[in-house]
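pinging the channel bc i need a second pair of eyes. not urgent but kinda urgent?? the chain im working w is below, pasted from the shared doc
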Amino acid sequence: MTARFDAVGLVVSDMAASVTFYRRLGFPFPQGAEEQPHAEAGLPGGIRLLLDTEETVRSFHPGFRPPAGGGRASLALRCETPEEVDALYEELVRAGCHGELKPWDAFWGQRYAVVHDPDGNGVDLFAALPGAAAQ
């Protein structure tokens, strides 16, 4: 038996806000997903991003409680250029998203920034700096 990585699942408190956020980042959620208790966006390579409302999770796990405090996981999105990192970060912050870490030139050779989704999950935005080895 071999397990195969298939999806990343997030529990969300507001499906509409989460679908809107991830659509801004290019995740192709179908029309009407914002009104559903479960939504999926297929990604290149066959991986999926799954969103489930807290109520959905409680329907099969009655003791579920959303974590308190900071997250321990994040999604990382590669941008084509350092300028795209800056532009996407600014677009998301202007749209009301929490900018956790403004874009900066990281010592490991990337333009790097962090925003939070509506539930506080980190979303890293990064691109290789000119002259840096591909990451």
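so The mean pLDDT is 92. and The two ends are 32 Å apart (CA to CA). — does that match what u expected or am i reading it wrong
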